Amino acid sequence: MPQEAAKYPLGDLVRQSPPFDASYIPDDSWVKDKVIVITGGASGFGAGFLRRWAAAGAVVIVADINTKNGDQLVRDVKKDTGNPNLHFIHCDVTDWQSQVNLFREAVKLSPHGGIDTVVANAGIAGGKRPFEEPTDLDQANPPPPDLSVLDVNLTGVVYTTYLALWYLPRNPGSSPASPTCNPSDTHRDRHLILISSYAGLMPIPGGPLYGTSKHAVVGLYRTLRSMSFMHGVRVNMLCPYFIDTPLGSWQVRVAVAGGAMGKTEDVVDAATRFAADPRVIGRAVSVGPKLKVKQGANGDWHLVEEGEQGGEQRAMWEIYLHDFEDADVFQRRVVAIMNRVTEIRGWTGWAKDMMSAILFGLRSWWK
To answer: How far is CA 363 from the centre of its chain?
Structure first.
C-alpha cells in the first residue's frame, strides 16, 4: 500500500489565531471609531450589528436595496444612541457599479478616509419559482430558472469581497492583521466578515440554490483565510442556524416547530467578538439556539438533561477548527511560497504599500 502523505500544521504560517474562546467576552469599546460597512443592513442581522456597534461608538455605513427601511433605521439608531456617525447608502449588491459606488462613498464618509471592517451580510432566502419544480419547459421559449438567490447570496458576496480586498489593505493607519496585537492599541483594522449559514454546512431540503450559495461562501472563506495574510486582511465567518429574522419564511418556522430557533442577539454577539477583537483571524463560528450543554471527559458535548448538575449555556460553536492542523504537503508548499513572496517584497513592498495608503488618503481628502 502507498505510504500515507505527510501532514503538517500550518496555523502559524497563515497567521491564524488560537481557537475561538466562547467564554471570553471582548470589550465593545474596541470598535469605537472603527469604520464598518454592512451590506444588507436594513433589517435582520444587519440591523442588529448596526445597533450594537453604533452604541459602542463605531462609524457604521449601512447599505441596502430597501431605501425606506434603511434610511429610517439609521435615523432611529442615531436618535437612540446619540451617535451621529451613522449613514445609509442605497446599494443593489447584484450590481457591480452599485457596490463600487458604495465603497467610494464609504471612504468619503469615513473620518480617516478608510474602511476597517466589511460585513458581507446581504442575502435572500429564495426566488419566485422553486428550482426543484421546473415548469413550462415544453414551451417554444422555455424560461430559465430563477437565479436571484445566487445573484444576491453569491455574486453579491463575491463583489463585496473583491472590493473589500482592495480597500482594506489601503486603510490609512492600519497594519497587517496579527493574532499577537494589542486590541486596545489597534485603532485601525483590515477585517472581512462573511455570513454563510447552517445551509452551507449541511444539506437543507427545499432550498437547493440557497444551500448552493451558502456552501460557496464557506468555500470562499476557507480559501481566503489561507492566503489573505499576504495583504494583512483577517477573514472570519458566521454560520447562523435557523434564526428568528425577517429572512425566515413561514415554511422555515413550520419546519423547526417544536424545536428551537436561534436569536439575533447571539449572532450579533458572535459578530461583535470578531469585529471588536483584531486578534481573531481565520475563525468561523456557527450560531444556534442557546442550550445548556456539558462537556464529557472525552471532549464531546451533550445536552444537559433535566435534573443533571453542571453545564453551561452556549449558542456559539467553532467550525473548521482543524483545517490547518493537518495539512498535506501541497498546501504547505503553496503557503510557504506565498510567505516567501511576502519576505522578498520586504521593506520595499511595505514602503510601496504605505505610500499607496498615504496617497489614497490624500486623494480622498482632496475630493
So the answer is: 29
Choosing from 167, 214, 221, 320, the catalytic residue is 214
Whether the Cβ atoms of residue 168 and residue 115 lie closer than 8 Å to each other: yes
Phi, psi of 17 (to 5 degrees): -80, 165
Of 209, 193, 326, the closest CA to residue 268 belongs to 193
Distance CA 248, CA 254 (A): 10
Q: Which long-range contacts (CB under 8 A, 24 or more apart) does 175-178 make?
A: 175/232, 176/229, 176/231, 176/232, 177/15, 177/229, 177/232, 177/233, 177/234, 177/278, 177/281, 178/15, 178/278, 178/279, 178/281
Per-residue pLDDT tens digits for 194-247: 999 988 988 877 789 999 999 999 999 998 987 777 789 999 999 998 877 655
Indicate if 214 belongs to the active site: yes
**Whole-number Å distance between alpha carbons of 53 and 272:** 8
Q: Answer for the pair 70, 92: CB distance below 8 angstroms, yes or no.
A: no
> Rounded to an integer, what distance in angstroms lies between the CA atom of residue 167 and that of residue 232?
12
- Cα–Cα distance for residue pair 169/353, rounded to 1 Å: 8
Bridge-partner residues for 317, per DSSP? 286
DSSP string, 202-270: S--TT-HHHHHHHHHHHHHHHHHTTTGGGGT-EEEEEEE-SBSSTTS-HHHHHHTTTS--B-HHHHHHH
- CA distance to 189, 196, 202, 257, per residue, from 253 (Å): 38, 19, 18, 6
Q: Of 159, 167, 210, 241, which is the active-site residue?
A: 210
292 given a catalytic annotation: no
- Which pTM value belongs to this model? 0.83
- β-strand pairing of 312-319 with 284-295: antiparallel
Return the C-alpha cell found at 67: 431605501
Cell of 115: 474602511
